[in-house]
Automatic annotation (TrEMBL):
Region forming the signal peptide: 1-32
Keywords, alphabetical: Signal
Protein name per the record: Short chain amide porin
InterPro entries noted in UniProt: Porin_dom_sf
Organism: Methylomicrobium album BG8
SUPFAM superfamilies the UniProt entry points to: Porins
Length: 408
């Protein structure tokens, strides 16, 4: 199962070269996805490279024999970013990640996207990319506000349920990515943003007929418009994006997208998410994140089949995640402190409810590029995990995480 997940797209920065910025503006493109170093080939063509690293130390109570604390150093993500523009309207993105970092580590393809970016209203991406979903998936780990956002969050989307892509009925993608195409754009000066996706989804197993997974995300920006490449999002802008109030709804659907070959079920996942970020008169920043999920499986995949194990055991039920944080305006040494609190509740059909409380503090040095996070968690979500069988069990335990994040 996916535990130290990495689900975001490559490094995101606004254009760094004036000439490049002019070229992009002339094309009416959405903000480009670029990395730390940009190499200009001519007035139209360019290539950029970058990298991102997340690593942590985590100690968990009672997960070892005799109730002893486990202590683990983790390499959560190491990514290489490569972006390029071939033509005024055509771009290419290629990113890698260590998708099995917890087991030695293999660098695998994260994103491989061919992009036709025509105007603000209509664009097409094809290849391997993020499946349009709730904000957490569109943020990924590098642009989320909380370090543990995936390891102890609400249930995963199908494309995020397993670490690696397989064709044996246990995988529908990896790290929130899948092979397919997305049409995206915005209207009303960017306030109404949409993304419609068509993906392969579950490979083999219950999906004997190779049915397509359909996905959709629609967001409306009530205050300032969030500015991100494509249909990506962020969990916070540290006050640099203005005052943000965005509400979004997303859906995913695949016939025979869950269960086993002998007992397939049709998967439907609906999520509603909200981001509110307000810059106060003292230049402190309040950020609130919230999401609610309702997943259903119909026309099959009984609880008896789930209890028997095997197949694609997607979540079915309700879950929500809420968090609040405050970024102090004063800089202490090279960064700013951002304390936060969070609560996650997962209520599966036919299985035990699980939850986690979390409190912590971020030390923000350079936004999403350089950040240190320390947090405490308590609950049974860490022990019950993704076991949605009728016999799922687990104790309430404490856990501490110290996480580091770098990007360039």
């Amino acid at each position: 199962m996916n535990d130290t997940i990495g689900q975001t797209a490559g490094k995101r920065l606004l254009p760094a070269l004036p000439a490049l910025a002019l070229a992009i503006a002339a094309g009416g493109h959405a903000p480009a996805a670029e990395a730390g170093a940009t190499f200009k080939i001519d007035d139209t063509k360019w290539v950029s490279v970058g990298a991102g690293l997340r690593t942590s130390f985590r100690s968990t109570e009672g997960a070892a024999n005799g109730g002893k604390w486990t202590n683990d150093f983790n390499l959560d993500n190491i990514r290489l970013y490569l972006n390029g523009q071939i033509h005024q309207y055509i771009k290419l993105e290629f990113n890698t990640d260590c998708q099995t970092c917890g087991d030695g580590g293999e660098m695998r393809i994260l994103d491989a996207i061919g992009k036709f970016e025509l105007n603000s209203m209509f664009n097409i991406w094809a290849g391997r990319m993020l499946v349009p979903a709730e904000r957490r998936e569109m943020n990924g780990p590098f642009y989320s506000a909380i370090y543990n956002i995936f390891a102890t969050g609400t249930p995963f989307e199908p494309a995020d349920f397993n670490l690696v892509i397989k064709s044996d009925g246990t995988s529908a993608g990896s790290f929130g990515r899948d092979d397919g195409a997305t049409v995206w754009g915005s209207f009303f000066d960017g306030r109404l943003q949409y993304a419609l996706g068509f993906f392969r989804g579950l490979r083999g197993g219950a999906n004997v007929d190779d049915n397509i997974l359909y996905s959709q995300r629609i967001a409306y920006n009530f205050w300032d418009v969030e500015k991100n490449p494509g249909y990506y999002t962020s969990g916070t802008y540290y006050g640099k994006g203005g005052d943000i109030l965005t509400l979004a709804i997303s859906n995913q659907y695949q016939e025979d997208g869950a269960g086993t070959q002998l007992d397939p079920g049709t998967f439907r996942g609906t999520a509603v998410d909200m981001l509110l970020e307000k810059v106060l008169p003292n230049e402190g920043v309040v950020t609130l994140n919230g999401e609610y999920k309702n997943y259903g499986i119909s026309d099959g995949y009984s609880q008896a089949s789930r209890d028997a194990g095997g197949g694609f055991a997607m979540f079915e039920g309700n879950a929500y995640d809420v968090s609040a944080m405050y970024l102090f305006p004063e800089k202490l040494w090279i960064g700013q402190f951002q304390p936060f609190v969070r609560y996650v509740n997962v209520d599966p059909n036919g299985s035990a409810t699980r939850e986690v409380y979390e409190g912590g503090v971020n030390y923000v040095i350079d936004g999403h590029n350089a950040r240190i996070s320390l947090s405490w968690q308590y609950g049974d979500l860490m022990t019950k995990g993704l076991d949605y069988s009728s016999t799922a069990s687990g104790d309430r335990v404490n856990a501490m995480t110290l996480g580091f994040q770098w990007q360039i």
